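Hi R.,

As promised, here are both runs. First protein below:
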Amino acid sequence: MAIGTRRPDWNLRSLRVFPPALMNRLRDSGFRRTVRLAGSKSTLYRRQFSKYGINVRNISRPADLGDFYLNSDELKHRPDELLCGTPELAVESSGTKGHATRVYLSRREMDYNARKGVVLKALYGISAEDRILSTSDYGFCLDGLLSHNAIPYWKSFAMCVGRVDPEDIYRRLADYRFNIVVSGIPWLARFTEVAEAEGRPYPLKLLIGGGGGGISPKTRRWIEDFWEAPLYTTYASAEAATSLGFECLQRSGYHFNEFDFYVEILNPDTEGYGEIVLTTLRRSVMPLIRYRTGDVARMIDEPCCCGLPFRRLSPLRGRLDEIVASVWGNVHPEFFDRLLDSVPGLTDEWQVALYEKDRKQTFQFRLELRSDAPRREEIQRRILEAIEKEHKLAWDAYTQKLGDVEFVFHPRGSLRKGRKLLRLVDERHSAEHR
């Protein structure tokens, strides 16, 4: 469904009365069209379809593709082989393994994704009188590019300034009279922390956040209570090249866009939680078919009282592996291996836990020392120097106080409790840290 820009309220009313059966037919038609395009234009899809014995003329729904899935390796190492058209721009994930996933788009496709943001304008009651600030990050990532293209369609005073230090923004807040702030969750938390220390100039109308691996209920309450404004979050990814889902005013899961994406839950458990698998339905430059995101959530099929016809995804439960979405990007054990490799005096037994402390994502390094280890202060200094040298995103988050670092030293042999020592653990939802 093409979303226009002149009548966002009309678009929202139209969505609420859109027949689900018609939406399903449009979705299925888009899926068939995408599979046939990929099968005729992409070298990788042609090769894989042949390997799996897939005749694209016989494909109507994802289940017809059997065991065929697309994973992140193809987007990291062979993105050009997925092309079905001429690329005009690209976005990358925040991966930290040296090879980020890369997605190519046309400018028409990016503009289409941006125009869909008028649904959020109508849903959240954004008007021409509002003044909007976006500090979504630029670089090669999606966030800043999408905000820069989408917000002008809202027809309000707006500035998209990139990931500026929250302290610099605070000093300008009253001058520009921003009442809507759009950014990543860690940035919004730090921004609130700065304002709490300096004094809130005035309440905001609303905040829109995404990225950083989600938000805990207590941090959401703290931000909302301080600014006297609701916080709505989105679920976006470089692979989707847009917001795959968004919260309505009820904030009970992410409504996902079923006009543009076919979403499956792979291998659901008894609670319905499984891996999110997506197929793009309107992309012609680099369509993704049954892409395994690695994110774990469940489908919420019950209708939402907001009236939107889209089904919902639950808040993300986490990742399938030890890759953790955070304010530092997607971190993993190899990332920390590289950081600790140059630090003398450490044993091979270590663990890093990510949890929330004082409403801030905190990486706790749990380390065991050899007998010849230097002083603990020296070890901490060496690790921080390694972060500064090896990973700019992590260092910027640390220096801007969007996230924090802790060090805990354990007796030799105490970290390993079983056969395997988990190198990276996400404890943000652990009862121990509530």
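And here is the second one, sequence first, then its structure tokens:
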Amino acid sequence: MISPTQATPPLVSIIIPVYNGAQWIGETLASALSQTYSNIEIIVVNDGSTDNTADVVCRYAQANLQLVEQPNRGQSAALNHGLSLAKGDYIQYLDGDDLLAPDKIERQLAFLQRQPPGTVSCCEWTRFYQDASQSQFIPQPLWQDFAPVDWLLCAWDNHLMMHGATWLIPKAVVNKAGEWDERLTLINDFEYFSRVVLASQQVRFCWGAKTYYRSGLPNSVSGLKSDTAWQSAFCSLNRGTQNLLAEEDSPRTRRVCANVFQRYVYEVYPAVPNLRQRAQQRVYQLGGATERPIGGPLFSLLRTVLGWRLAKVTKEWLYQYGYDRWRQKHSGLRSAVGVPSP
């Protein structure tokens, strides 16, 4: 729907950061270029890739596709570079290995234009590993309308994600929220989207618009488990919770923020003891957490006998030892049939 004052349909800027994504970027670009809504610009920021990512992007050359090169500075810097070039009235983020349904932008933009100014929208999404067509869209508690604070409370209290490609955001809200924090790597979106949501007037869920989140990639940022990555995660959680508490400092927000830090303690153990101590201090400062360690059947059994700390160490050792033995046992067979070893 176009307002009477608009001479042309709104422009949507699709910003795609990519690093060594030659294997997937073609499929991602195809999903962006096949959008049924035509007034789009696509900005691909190649973050110093050492593979042939740029060559693949060039094969898809069109007037509305721009390839930007920069030295390797990280995903957040690539996103900020793309934002600085974006001319759109709306911003669509898209990782270099994720996919959009063909009518994603058309559906969501029409939906947003029926909402009050300052509204941001998210949509249906599914996780896939190889073939997106086999994925199922299973509703989650976040698949509904929320006031901004309530959206964050639901997401954080239930440990739910809404991956970046689901959002369609008015440029005015993006400008109000500010840039991505370039100091952050792991879960940089936790902090960034806390600002986007709080900068909005409301969050509205758009049924029918769909995105596909690729999982299982060995070198993905979300899979990083180094001390530097855990530092980034802690900083992102700290800044994101501060953003929420600045908007509403109440018993309910303090409890949820305490649970965020308690979950972090469970997840990183036994690594980074200094960060775990800082996270635990935040839990105490916020009045204590109700979060309890959770896991699969093996972890639950071990926790009953050993306690959660020893149970986690034991489970990870068992998984690693069992995986290594399986890999050694089957490496010869995999080579014989031409399947690369993991």
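A quick note on the second one: The longest strand covers residues 202-214. Let me know what you think.

Best,
J.
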